[in-house]
Amino acid sequence: MAxxxxxxTSRRTVYEALRRKVLTLELPPGTxxxxxxxxxxxxxxxxxxxxxxxxxxxxxxxQIFPQVGSFVSRVDPARVADAQFLRxxxxxxxxxxxxxxxxxxxxxxxxxxxxxxQRPGLDLEGFFELxxxxxxxxxxxxxxxxxxxxVASAKGHLxxxxxxxxxxxxxxxxxxxxxxxLDAVLAGDVALARTAMRTHLRAVFNDVERIRxxxxxxxxxxxxxxxxxxNVVVWE
Length: 236
Description:
The protein has 236 residues and is mainly alpha-helical. It has helices spanning 2-23, 35-42, 46-58, 77-96, 104-117, 124-141, 147-153, 156-166, 171-186, 190-214; strands spanning 32-33, 62-65, 69-72, 227-229, 233-235. It is globular. Helix content is 65%, strand content 7%.
């Protein structure tokens, strides 16, 4: 029994490590994945790596091609749109459920979060984590904090698109949008909060189109092309 638990723990640890590498773009879209190299870098056997790649393929974050290999999936704009639809539906609905008297501790936490977002020298991943915490905090303010787990599990492609956007759009722009949203919430102006939230969440679509113009290789195409093996594995 203990050995079985250890194997499950090892697989979960490896899965979470690989998922984070994919989502943070440490493993960029289209990257060829070697089970041996991944196992060596994570100091584990190939078995939990292979099992983790299968789990990631079920999420659409990895593609496994028989006789060719495994690859980090390219960002799929259709999956981005689906995840954005789910996220927007949840977050917009939560604004309608804000109580007349807001939890002062949650409000203070959101204000501290916004101050941290504007801290000089904040790196991309630091901002991304604060961004996630801010949106989850807004859900908690409306009493729907647990809904974040469902949203987070569905937005792998969306998160990669957002991170690609952060490489080109200053984080300060998004931080300013967060300030607008919270100001509207605190003023009790739900209509303004919804407008600001919708604009903020849909900015990712502009990012996707802009990035596709100069880096189309990062995105999936309608052709469903697979990599082919020549002297090296390449995408058609």
